[in-house]
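I am writing to request your help with a piece of structural work I have in hand. I set the record out below, with my sincere thanks for your time.
___
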Amino acid sequence: MRFIITLLLITNFLSAGDKIALLIGNNDYSFQPLDNPLNDVDGIYKTLSEIGFKSSNITVLKNKSQNEMKKALFEFEQKASKAEIALIYFSGHGMQVNNTNYMFPANTTATKPIHLEGLVNLNFFIQSASSAKYGIVLVDACRNNPLVKYFQNGKHKGSTAKKGLGQVTPIAGQVVIGFATSAGDTADDGSGNMSPYARALSVRLKEKDDIRNILGKVGNDVSGKYEQNPIYRANLASSVYLSQNKIKILKPKIEIVKKINSTSQLIVASQMKGRSIIGGKVWQDEKTIKRFNWEEAIKYCNNLTLHDDSNWRLPTPKELKELYENKEKLKFFDDYFYWTSTSSNKKSNSAWVVAFDAGFSGTHRKNYKLNTRCIKK
């Protein structure tokens, strides 16, 4: 039966549901006490309360130990799995050693590699926030740390350290990470009652704008007055608005002009509309790329096979690398990581991906939601 499909791009506002936050401020350090982390946390708490975060959904930690911080991050991760937005803010000392960023609990020091085990890896913060639909991690921990000298100039074999923090780019989930300054630089603790970064955040977060735009404005505010340049790294497919309790996303709407017998046939027809023939192989084009975990990605491609004249599947790493070589013909998402059909091994929790920003391959956990592009045999 003949049918017509019209795809309309509309703006759809979804209720943001629960927005949760974890605010951590530590200033009690014997090697170099800080003036403002506790004030920073109070300021951010006040702002979040004003823009719709329920007080019961904001957890505040001040001068806590490693065990207390890790426990809070674990509990926050569990809570975040049911939240729309999860925001973590940390104010205190931080340090990068061997390209790993560590946050300092209160009353801790680190002059030897073994002492690093008493700190908290920044990856724990990112993992906790990324459990939500949208995660935000704000790191106000680039203050000048005198302990860096103990890991420089070969004082400990196999250990290297740099001033400030190393910036991290999220590669999975819907996450944005903000840093008080750029890689390898230090941030000011502030001469007033808040750090420059926290003060700018406390003002800008009230604006009804996408979090990425807000963090860009924060960067301009701070860099215009201080010798530091806040930056952010984002892996968001949607615009996230903290201050109006809504998330703005674009969704395709299918309008049926003439009724047909098979709904599934209609859906697949709309999904399969865009194709690219590259290197003699048929690929879905950028308009039909989906985000799934690895198991879902396999099922998605297999399901396309049921409604087509040949088999669709996930590509091999080699095929995706060949696609990368033709990248000038294609458009890509901000998230460049695409699933391949290859698992690390049958029992592994990881599968191979190809990064389209650099053309390299590596592995990611199978439960991450990454881009899925099917190929037709």
User: Anything to note?
Assistant: Residues 262-376 form a domain with the Mannose-Binding Protein A; Chain A fold (CATH 3.10.100.10).
